[in-house]
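Consider a concrete sample entry:
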Amino acid sequence: MSNELIYQKKNFYEVFGEAEKKKAHEYAIGYTAFLDKAKTEREATEESVKMAIAAGYREYSFGMPMKAGDKFYFNNRGKNIFLFTVGTEHMENGFRISAAHIDSPRLDLKPCPLYEEGGMSFLKTHYYGGIRKYQWVTVPLALHGVVVKADGTSVQVTVGEDESDPIFYINDLLPHLAHDDAKKTVAEAIPAEKLNLLVGSEPIGDSDAPIKQHVLTILNEKYGISEEDFLSAELSAVPAEKARDIGFDRSLIGAYGHDDRVCAYPALTALFENASSEHSLMCILADKEETGSDGNTGMQADLMCDLMHEISLAMGANPTVVRYNSKCLSADVSACFDPNFPDVFEKRNAALLSCGVVLTKYTGARGKSSTNDASAEYIGWLRGVMAKDGVLWQSAELGKTDCGGGGTVAKYIANHNIETVDLGVPVLSMHAPYEAVAKVDLYETHRAFCAFCKY
């Protein structure tokens, strides 16, 4: 009896057998394929639309009639997507909402990026999101994005992903000349203005900048663009590496962009698997979370409420009541305890690898500032939901109380009077060019979203 009163986190391999482990590894195959196709929010939106259409979803436009059983998606400017199903129960019982983000830290090109110096040509970058700048030097980088010309035509750019493609590179200082550099802090070692992409070294013609001229000639021949077209472009440098298994046992996945596509993909697959639920379901894949969720594709925009309002009216429901009775899982990652850096974690309240999906009651920083703090009632309800399907889950905070902190989209959704809590996958080396997650934690996250959709 005394042991039953004690709470202790459980490891997946202690709870489940080979059959469940096999399911987790099989599920990871689809996820890694999604990762390799979706390295930017535009690409993630495009892939999600393809998956939605294959699952029988139709594109939604404001004012469309609808009925129970209908499945729709709303593509917001190619960078943010809402998918929803109309349940059989009354709409005023609310939506079950899962909200993840599909942007990740990266290096964006500046509006006037191209220059030549020292026998080399470079592209200037402006880092996006919270990165440790030293991690981005001397790694293979690919260029992804879109160039929109003055006539309105759009050119898709992806260079560095195929084996036959060139990659791009950021120079670093050799150790032989780094005596003074070695005295700098990690934050000072690589200033932002040194994150310049090396893109060429061969001159052409007799201009004042023959290497730059050569780069522009190649871009014009392949994409029909000129230097001025950079002014209306969204081009990003992202790691060129593919998602790969880590470890002799292949239990981990290494990849760029786990934060937060490792939650976006399970939210999507759970929605598709439970589209016939009696509950009305909504899956939101948002942009701009890494920079504060601002803008018309971020979660601070009014679009979620606009869509819920239109859907409610189409189904004869009061939008205010629908929001009040809705429940949300803010699907975002947590920091996984790393024994190489134990000092920043409070281990009793840290997410442990292979112990399942992580429920985070509050994020924010210091004295719980800038966070949604989910209610005990909502967490109690969610515990019961996961217990019904035997989902393996754990509770965690994001490091020691005064070591830093972070935020998610949870508070922006909760501000609309919607019960919200963070739930997601523990990640090692978060925000690095190559992060790591456990396949079993990914799978338990999918199962958690499925239970949330069902009950």
